[in-house]
Amino acid sequence: MVIDQQPRSYPFEVFQGELPDELLDMVERQPVSRVVLPDGRAAWLVLGFAQVQVVLSDARFVRGVPAEEPVGESAGCPVTGRTRELSMNGADHTSLRRLASRAFTARRIESYRPRVQQIADELVEAMAAAGPGADLISGFVAPLPALVIYEVLGVPASDRGRFDEWIAEINSITAYGNPDSVRAAAELREYLAGRLEVKRAEPGDDLISAWLAEQRTATLTDEEIIGLCLGVLIGGREINSISAGMRALFQHPLQMAMLRDDPSLLPGAVEEILRFTSVSSMFLVQTALADVELGGELIRAGDAVMALPWAANRHGEFFADPGVFDITRAHNPHLTFGHGPHFCLGAALGRLELEIAVGTLLRRFPGLGSGVPIDELPWRQERINCGIREFPLTW
């Protein structure tokens, strides 16, 4: 099915908490269409739920691009360009993922709950001491995931300031092709190589130690462990789900009151926050290895393909009233953490953080409110992440 002969330029516009109307309209009307990337190359944009599932799980689509140089948001990335797990496919990816996932057991993730709760409690008490007007982003949303990841990886407190600087440089809007960003990535990798040696001599209850333990019985190289650490550092510090979740709750005060009065609704609220608010202008380009008919279009072998899970999360065929935020939603098979062989290894940790973050804020501040109208919240725009820049609170 070809509706528009002239390919659109993608991204359509900067996303600021909402999917562009044009994109929402295309999810069901045109789930697969041709677009032009910022570098002028053509690609297929996949938005429909079933079609996104196929691209993310079918072996005929692989991570990477059909060219010597990367395309789109992966172009020139100083970290992900060298993080092997992000671009692996097939048997190699399956083997590495199996080894990596042994450290992400449900028991291990749940064992972090008391420490994550302690970190959240300490942060909200500091906000309470600062008084109304405290910034949710700098006071809670940004430090919580960072501190949790440092705990999970076993990064000592004395080194965390350097990590913050490295990640900020890598995430900056000028990171791609920027010598400072390349330098920061190299320094971060060098530091992680050193941490492997420290943990090899003195193992602890952290992911690095768990992955090093796998080396005794399986082929897991130091470079692969460093790549896994980078994936955890970059993905695990993503802060938008917490701030966007609170934004959505402020926009739906009755549901916020329901959640405050009945904490048993938290797990469902977490899933709905992940489905409804996970909006990004970032995209990952994949390649078709064979001709594939998808959504009424014929994708040729070698074509570049982009699947957008956050758009698929608004597909009315799979979600009742997809544009409605509903923390009591019974059926919520969202694709926010991906699908198939590349499903996010850190999904359970992300859910745990979000549940504790939202629950702690509502419990500690019963009269929590936004210090400015929700539609006036300022946004930041980075190449890897974008989100709310400042979020003043009242209580």
UniProtKB/TrEMBL annotation:
One of its GO terms (biological process) is antibiotic biosynthetic process. Its cofactor is heme. Keywords: Heme, Iron, Metal-binding, Monooxygenase, Oxidoreductase. Coiled coil: none annotated. The keyword Iron applies. GO terms for molecular function: heme binding; iron ion binding; monooxygenase activity; oxidoreductase activity, acting on paired donors, with incorporation or reduction of molecular oxygen. It comes from the Bacteria. The keyword NADP does not apply. Belongs to the cytochrome P450 family. This is Nocardicin N-oxygenase.
